[in-house]
Design goal:
Layout lengths: L5 H4 L10 H4 L13 H8 L9 H5 L6 H9 L3 H9 L5 H7 L3 H4 L12 H14 L15 E5 L3 H12 L3 E5 L8 H4 L8 H14 L2 E3 L10 H7 L2 E4 L5 E2 L12 E3 H13 L13 E5 L3 H13 L3 E5 L27 H8 L11 E2 L2 E8 L5 E9 L5 E10 L2 E4 L3 E3 L7 H5 L22 E3 L2 H4 L4 H20 L18
Parallel strand pairs: 1-2, 1-4, 2-3, 4-15, 6-13, 7-8, 7-13, 8-9
Antiparallel strand pairs: 5-14, 10-11, 11-12
Helix pairs in contact: 3-5, 3-9, 5-6, 5-9, 6-9, 7-9, 10-19, 14-15, 15-16
């Protein structure tokens, strides 16, 4: 602990964002380049090195947060990088994309603003690359065993890297033309530039991991052939079966799913397209759903030049501070948060109607209305109370040329001919792939990791599960393992 009074000497200061008017003109990350490092050492000093650090329990990766906070406060970046990589394969992903449940569990957060754990993490992650502290770690010997990983999102990549480093021959199968899963085509570049992903993929290739892109199980290779080719399989296809909104007018042209809208926008940034076929340019956009995917759509539509963007959220406006009765520390609290996208849309006045920034809270989508050509032209919404019961006489109409449904995901795709069906694994009643506490499915040698088995979750849970599933596969193949298993398949986040 570098400074026992650091939390008293230094107020919380976060990585500053670029001015809204500047950043909405490009797809670069929203933060001021180079502005984080000058802040980070005193911010790390705010860590109290608690006797019982609940930030460990709040993070499924078991990140050694007080240790690397202390090392950063002393400017020992090499040692901090080693401690961070000890538990997290991809800190540059989590430092940018995770909502930081570790900060909710910070002991300092009981009565003060939490330590900026996420900012410290991303600062270390960026120094790792700047200082050449992430060389490929190829195995010293090969086991002669082969593992196939289906899916290249964070769970699949984590499992693949761990298994490759353990000496197995690993092949990652990805149905898209580039590896990365939702990190590639679901997350907008203004949240995480794809160069961070490309660096990790290059590292993994140098270590020996093989990637087979544009290869869908069931289309390009059968499930039986895949099982015959490898000694074990890790199914990490994510939870990509989106939730529907069965209201009148759903069939109208212009009512689309968020994950139909975001990938082509990302392909524009990749240089594959000049303009997205679903571009929001000049359109009145209504986003149904108040989560992170909805915010991603919001920031994308603003950058594409939408005429207006309104996000409809059925939840009531959250409180500004933690409700200790409903969300006692150290659980992750429901509070009012302003993402960069909400800040942009609010400051620039993009919403037709809103309670705050671009969001319309306590609003339920009743129906869509269209014109004679069958194109959507309006969204009818009604007010609801805290228990989501309709409030009589509180209907309003929002103009809409494009409606994006961002209602979350039910689980993996289980349609005939897909990876789940081809491998013959059982599906649980909740729509996820059935598995035991050790990630094993009911098909021998087939394991499942990440959202495919857990359901829609956070990037930290995906990486933790990928690491743990890799340990299970290594034990299955070798009889023992030295790989870490930070979580079991039955573990869940802290709840009140």
């Amino acid at each position: 602990m570098a400074d026992p009074k650091g939390f008293l000497r230094h107020p919380r200061r976060e990585w500053p964002r670029r001015p809204v008017g500047e950043r909405v003109k490009d797809w670069d990350e929203v933060y001021v380049p180079g502005a984080l490092l000058p802040l980070i050492e005193p911010q790390a000093e705010r860590c109290m090195d608690c006797g019982v650090p609940f930030c460990h329990e709040a993070c499924p990766l078991g990140n050694l947060i007080p240790e690397w906070n202390d090392l950063v406060s002393r400017a020992d970046w090499r040692a901090a990088a080693e401690r961070l990589h000890a538990t997290n394969n991809f800190p540059e992903f989590t430092g940018r994309l995770c909502p930081a449940p570790c900060e909710a569990g910070c002991v300092l957060a009981i009565n003060q603003p939490a330590v900026t754990i996420k900012n410290v993490e991303v600062a270390i992650a960026d120094r790792i690359w700047e200082d050449g502290l992430a060389p490929p770690r190829a195995p010293q010997r090969l086991t002669g065993r082969s593992v196939g990983v289906v899916g290249s999102g964070p769970a699949g990549l984590a499992a693949a890297q761990q298994l490759t480093r353990a000496g197995h021959t690993v092949v990652v199968y990805e149905r898209d033309d580039r590896a990365g899963g939702l990190l590639r085509y679901g997350i907008p570049a203004f949240k995480m530039e794809k160069r961070h992903l490309e660096r990790r993929l290059a590292q993994m290739r140098a270590e020996g991991t093989k990637f087979r892109t544009s290869t869908a199980v069931g289309r390009d290779i059968g499930g039986a052939a895949l099982r015959a080719r490898h000694d074990a399989l890790v199914l990490a296809v994510g939870a990509t079966a989106w939730r529907e909104l069965p209201v009148p007018g759903r069939e109208l042209d212009g009512v689309r799913q968020a994950m139909e809208y975001l990938p082509p926008a990302n392909r524009v940034c990749e240089g594959d397209l000049d303009v997205s076929p679903l571009s929001a340019a000049g359109k009145h956009v209504v986003i149904v759903g108040g989560g992170d995917t909805g915010a991603d759509c919001l920031g994308t539509a603003v950058r594409e030049g939408a005429a207006s963007v309104t996000q409809v959220d059925i939840r009531t406006l959250p409180p500004a501070e933690r409700d200790e009765d409903a969300d006692p520390w150290p659980a992750y609290p429901t509070v009012y948060r302003v993402s960069p996208a909400h800040e942009e849309a609010g400051e620039l006045g993009f919403a037709q109607e809103s309670d705050t920034d671009a969001r319309l809270f306590a609003a339920s989508t009743l129906r869509f209305a269209g014109d004679a050509a069958g194109r959507v032209r309006a969204v009818h919404v009604g007010a609801v109370d805290a228990r989501r019961r309709p409030v009589p006489g509180a209907e309003r109409v929002l103009r809409a040329d494009l409606v994006l449904l961002a209602l979350g995901f039910q689980g993996p795709e289980v349609t005939a001919g897909g990876a789940v069906a081809e491998l013959g694994v059982s599906v649980a009643p909740d729509g996820t792939v059935a598995r035991d506490a050790g990630y094993a499915t009911d098909v021998p040698g087939v394991y499942v990791a990440g959202d495919a088995g857990r359901g829609q979750s956070l990037v930290v849970w995906a990486i933790a599960e990928g690491r743990a599933a890799a340990a299970a596969v290594d034990r299955h193949l070798m009889g023992t393992t030295s790989l870490p298993a930070p979580v079991t398949a039955k573990d869940r986040p802290l709840k009140p």
